[in-house]
From TrEMBL:
Ranges for domain Glycosyl hydrolase family 13 catalytic: 22-411
Keywords attached to this entry: Hydrolase
SMART domains: Aamy
Family: Belongs to the glycosyl hydrolase 13 family.
Organism of this sequence: Streptomyces lichenis
Lineage of the organism: Bacteria, Bacillati, Actinomycetota, Actinomycetes, Kitasatosporales
Protein name as it appears in the record: Glycoside hydrolase family 13 protein
């Protein structure tokens, strides 16, 4: 198949200001009624996404997988998991979305594969010292009889990072034992992944999200872990930049783009991944994890823009994803930030408060310079669901000894139709995760009929975002105002066109609005005297 034609020059930089919708296929829509979301379900709901007004859709892994970690344990990148459909259906979905003006991004997981991947199965059969084992990190154990792991690296999911096989060697897995880490010093690993990129670009995808993008390269000596050691033995190693420069050359041949999952506290090192010959964008976790507090929100915005400026890359803004507590729940708690280490069962939540804040945060996010990622169900205002312990499937829960509630609460199948079985998800049988009582109160069809609903707010905001030249990528100027108010002006890059002002009040009481000529959109009613109430945001004509 010949390379896909690059986009027209006028739209070559679409990704700099795009709104990209994240689909978790198992939970989006069920087309065949078996309890699991699938590609047929997504295809049937493409008109919904077009009406919502998104520019692209990012699919979390839809590949063949035993689902030990929600599909991030990939057994074959060139095969769609039968639970979701077929490769032909994926190609048709990509084409159908493109006809509606929606681009497609897929997910690549370079750090590891499934223990059912042909490479790993061959490595187990081949034995110690074989070429097959050099594709992974196999080592003899320590101790008198090799009974101890080769090093003491901590796991991303708690528990051990090494598993011993029958012949006595151990293999490395930073996540679960079902996800063996690849050896990125081996040329075959690099060649295979570049071929996988070409495979999907040739099928029409517009971009690739890179999972755990700072983890694949390892210190070849595999030394014990020392806190603060520089360079880190397996995070953000310099070798990664050569890998991503090579990937960029592949993407450029097809007009494709990358977004990296890069969790790094060092702004300068984060920016290195966004140099012009590496990744186009990377997720902004500083903003995602930030509490709903005006000083910290402004600092997160300023820091984000500052760290992107030296490399000329656009920022990305996201409030929630398939790993993170849903926004309306997080913002309704005493601690409105996010940290994996603090997740716990039974955290008190004020959903009415969280919903007001989530509505305001939506307008704040959509008014910031750069691109926005919207996780499925956020436009419906879905809360985090409490999953009964006996129904939890996330390995984070089990590897924590049952103390971590895991990530299933943000992955519950979507409600589409009020009053329908399983809220119209499409199943004839109960979905793979249980929907909580009252879930159809959030149903898309019910909200579509209410312009004041969360869905109505998102549809209106996205339509305005497309119509207003000042929004998307471009300059931001902070405006003076009373303590606690976040107000900034967006102007059209290069001049021309009308300005737009976004004002957000995360503070405790109403505040005066900045000077303006008209109110374009508000996340909630203004006060009787025209002031901006607490936990409310507004877009104004400057």
């Amino acid at each position: 198949m010949p390379p896909a034609a690059p986009p027209p020059p006028s739209r070559r930089d679409w990704w700099r200001s795009a709104v990209i919708y994240q689909v978790y296929p198992r939970s989006f829509a069920d087309g065949d009624g078996d309890g699991t979301g699938d590609l047929a379900g997504v295809r049937a709901r493409l008109p919904y996404l077009a009406e919502l007004g998104v520019d692209a859709v990012w699919f979390t892994p839809w590949y063949l997988s035993p689902l030990a970690d929600g599909g991030y344990d990939v057994a074959d990148y060139r095969t769609i998991d039968p639970a979701f459909g077929t490769l032909a259906e994926a190609e048709a979905l990509i084409a159908d979305a493109r006809e509606l003006g929606i681009r497609t991004l897929v997910d690549i997981v370079p750090n590891h594969v499934s223990d059912q991947h042909p490479w790993f199965r061959a490595s187990l059969a081949a034995g110690p010292g074989s070429p097959e084992r050099k594709l992974f990190h196999f080592r003899p154990g320590r101790g008198a009889h090799g009974e101890l792991p080769p090093n003491d690296w901590p796991s991303q999911f708690a528990g051990r990072t090494w598993t011993r096989v029958e012949d006595g060697e151990w293999y490395l897995h930073l996540f679960t034992p079902q996800q063996p880490d690849l050896n990125w010093a081996h040329p075959a690993v690099r060649e295979e992944h570049e071929d996988v990129l070409r495979f999907w670009f040739e099928r029409g995808v517009a971009g690739v999200r890179i999972d755990s993008a700072a983890l694949p390269a390892k210190d070849p000596e595999l030394p014990d872990f020392t806190e603060g050691r520089d360079p880190h033995p397996y995070v953000d190693r310099d070798e990664l930049h050569e890998i991503y420069r090579s990937w960029r050359a592949v993407a450029d041949a097809y007009g494709g783009v990358f977004v990296g999952e890069v969790w790094l506290p060092d702004a300068e090192r984060f920016a290195r991944y966004l140099r012009p010959d590496e990744l186009h964008t990377a997720f902004n976790f500083t903003f995602l994890a930030c509490p709903w507090e005006p000083v910290r929100l402004r600092a997160a915005i300023d820091d984000t823009l500052a760290e992107h400026a030296p490399v000329g890359a656009p920022a990305t803004w996201v409030l929630c994803n398939h790993d993170v507590t849903r926004t309306v729940t997080r913002y309704g708690r005493a601690d409105t930030g996010f940290d994996f280490a603090t997740k716990a069962f039974g955290t008190p939540t004020d959903l009415a408060l969280g919903t007001r804040r989530a509505r305001a945060a939506a307008l704040l996010t959509l008014a910031l310079p750069g691109s926005v990622y919207l996780y499925q169900g956020e436009e419906l205002g879905l809360p985090e669901a409490d999953i009964p312990p006996e129904r939890v499937q996330d390995p984070m829960h089990f590897r924590s000894g049952g103390t971590d509630p895991g990530r299933d609460g943000c992955r519950v199948p979507l409600p589409w139709t009020a009053g329908a079985p399983y809220a119209g998800f499409g199943s004839r049988t109960e979905p793979w995760l249980p929907q909580p009582e009252g879930w159809d109160g959030y149903a898309a069809d019910r909200q579509a009929a209410d312009p004041d609903s969360m869905l109505g707010l998102y549809r209106t905001a996205l339509a305005l975002r497309r119509a207003e030249p000042a929004l998307g990528d471009g300059p931001l100027t902070w405006l003076p105002g009373p303590a606690g108010l976040l107000a900034f002006r967006r102007t059209v890059a290069g001049g021309g066109g009308a300005d737009l002002v976004c004002a957000v009040n995360p503070g405790p009481g109403p505040v005066p609005l900045p000077p303006h000529s008209a109110v374009l959109l508000a996340s909630g009613p203004l006060a009787a005297d025209g002031r901006l109430p607490s936990d409310t945001a507004v877009w104004l004509r400057g």
